[in-house]
Amino acid sequence: MLKDCIENVRKTVPLVHNITNYVTVNDVANVLLACGGSPIMSDEPEDVEDITAICGGLNINIGTLNQRSIEAMYRAGAKANALGHVVLLDPVGAGASALRTNTAVGLMEKVKFDVIRGNISEIKTLALGSGTTKGVDADVADAVTEESLDAAVKFAKNFAEKTGSIIAITGAIDLVADANKCYVIRNGRPEMGKITGTGCQLSGLMTAFVVANPEAKLEAAAAAVCVMGLAGEIGWSRMQDGDGNSTYRNRIIDAIYNMDGETLEKGAKYEVR
Amino acid sequence: MLKDCIENVRKTVPLVHNITNYVTVNDVANVLLACGGSPIMSDEPEDVEDITAICGGLNINIGTLNQRSIEAMYRAGAKANALGHVVLLDPVGAGASALRTNTAVGLMEKVKFDVIRGNISEIKTLALGSGTTKGVDADVADAVTEESLDAAVKFAKNFAEKTGSIIAITGAIDLVADANKCYVIRNGRPEMGKITGTGCQLSGLMTAFVVANPEAKLEAAAAAVCVMGLAGEIGWSRMQDGDGNSTYRNRIIDAIYNMDGETLEKGAKYEVR
Amino acid sequence: MLKDCIENVRKTVPLVHNITNYVTVNDVANVLLACGGSPIMSDEPEDVEDITAICGGLNINIGTLNQRSIEAMYRAGAKANALGHVVLLDPVGAGASALRTNTAVGLMEKVKFDVIRGNISEIKTLALGSGTTKGVDADVADAVTEESLDAAVKFAKNFAEKTGSIIAITGAIDLVADANKCYVIRNGRPEMGKITGTGCQLSGLMTAFVVANPEAKLEAAAAAVCVMGLAGEIGWSRMQDGDGNSTYRNRIIDAIYNMDGETLEKGAKYEVR
């Protein structure tokens, strides 16, 4: 039940350590608070092991990576693994630069990730060792559509099996898969793409959901995708004449803040394949 | 008079140098502008001495510290002390990691702070050389409540005497103390804890208030706490159905922007012990 | 036609690489999305050449510069020049510290900028090798006013001729000049100065406009200034009782999001000298 997933977050207030980009970090923090979690940020190698040790989960986002933060990602990832904490990778811009691709691939070799979440282009880069990323959006030709859905589901399951991680591919249609099961989710609105960082926000949210639901990680990851997309729908319904992407950002976070289990159950649009 | 404290900020437009975390920095800047001050940010060691020299105050926040910014904190602090500027320490997460605790303690040894502002857990860490911090929130068992108030007031005064700094401990009940006098403030709302960085925002605001009121630093620090808490109350009163923590953040900053001396005098809830 | 300038942005979705300060970066990203562009941020020297290569323009903002990001600015600037991309410099705080002044001047020696955009104090610092900057606001004595307009226009044209760059000087009256022609723009509102980063936002916006209009760079830069100022006017007209600078920030970005060519043509207030 998705309902349980969100209620467990609100009950247990999971503390999430974020090593994330400075573009969207404030929104990530407010989304974590909105959903019932608690955020802490640290990207200094000498600091991250202590910080991650007091948390329940670690969210690694390579959006504005640098040599210092890359070292912090490796150290925090190793520590979180040693402690059995939930670890998520958001490979922002993998495929757009050698450093980003190599960092994401290198992290996957050294750190065991519970979840890898990105757009189709980023995930393909990791899976195939190639691919192109225009900025942080998925290449249109490679978008997950109704036509390409069967192939995309198969790809997600295969990559999940290969990595042992839950694979979340977000876009117009979202996929959340392990080796055997794939949630196909149709919440959300295209206008969410006009707000910076809805993907980063989802990664933070998803980390909290997986931490709070250790016995149902796949469902928790899917629930987080439904929450974000449904918040995008609710937020849009509250838009007034003259409002734009900045107000929409606020209304989405507000909708997460106000979301309860009933609303989530009723509004979630998914099928399992 | 609290009224004078805020009016002096608006009249003199204090320029505040902030070495602060990248999570909440944008809100800190907008809060400084809202209250009538002017913000500038710099955390590069080669830059901070020049920048702090043209300012009236320095706000050091260790929220996302790194080796570079730590060096910048020491250099800026020394320069600000040499010039007789107001310096404030916000020891975010002291107690949560060795680096944070050691940095805060080390700064207190080398830099003379006019004000140290944190939650009870952070301040206890500094005072006792120990303590635990769950993220950046005060440990619930150590919260300042009506029951623990007498002991907390005594603790704040003692630590103020020991350090020669004004000690501001914020939470459900806020304390602002020097060795002899403690403001006990009951403004604010619990929902402010669901917004990232209200503490960081207060530290920026407080620095501006102390700079603008050199003859009444304790009262100015207390006035800043009242402004923030009262803005939280006014902002909450403007919340509409469906609003959440993201909109609340905007409404609080808006309330600071619109606050005048009369509103502050009427709305401030404090006693002196 | 200004109308064409904004419509070209919406049609071509220019990808802009930003090396910018962490104070206002989120707003810069949302403004780029609002106007129809697409943002990507990277400030790691090992990353920036790959990132800038896939973009159409590069926006360099020295607002929270550090030794790492300065190296990234030089490397990205050289790469962007080699590829014939649009490059813009926003010399935040030039004149306020030796490092900022030297970095801006050094970048101008090594990188060919299509546009340099700052306040009068910053631009004077670059032009004259001296000047004072109080924070990031123009020195009041040196503001561009109706009285000082003739001299300021001449100064802007001269500096444009000397540098071969379009010079954009923003304040109460905005100037956008090349060696022969100067747009004098009177859009905007003084309350925009109470929001952090409207200048940074404009620099991002302007980069996208110049990228999308390679045959009309001067007009495109002027169009960007009109868009920002007009959005400030439209945003202000939507303010309600109790709103302040935080809500105003959202309304300005919203107004950019909703601006079409007709609105821009009707609302732009400029003359050419």
Plain-language structure description:
Three copies of one chain form a homotrimer. The first copy, chain A, is an alpha/beta fold and 273 residues long. Helix content of chain A is 52%, strand content 14%. Chain A has eleven helices and nine strands. Chain A has a nine-stranded mixed β-sheet, with helices on both faces. The longest helix of chain A has 21 residues, at 217-237. Mean pLDDT of chain A is 95; it is low at 130-140.
Low-confidence stretches of chain A: 130-140
Question: Taking Cα atoms only, what radius of gyration of chain A do you get, to the nearest Å?
Answer: 17 Å
- SSE-based structural type of chain A: alpha/beta
**Biggest sheet: strand arrangement of chain A:** 2-1-3-4-5-6-7-8-9
| Span of the ends, CA to CA of chain A | 17 Å
Major sheet attributes of chain A? 9 strands, mixed
Mean pLDDT score of chain A, rounded? 95
- Report the total helices of chain A: 11
Biggest interface and residues each: A-B, 33 and 33 residues
Shape of chain A: globular
List the quaternary state of the chains: homotrimer
Q: Which percent range fits the helix content of chain A?
A: 40-55%
Strand elements of chain A, count: 9
Q: Write the element-wise H/E pattern of chain A from the N-terminal end onward.
A: HEHEHEHEHEHHEEEHHHHE
How large a portion of the residues of chain A is in β-strands, by DSSP E?
5-15%
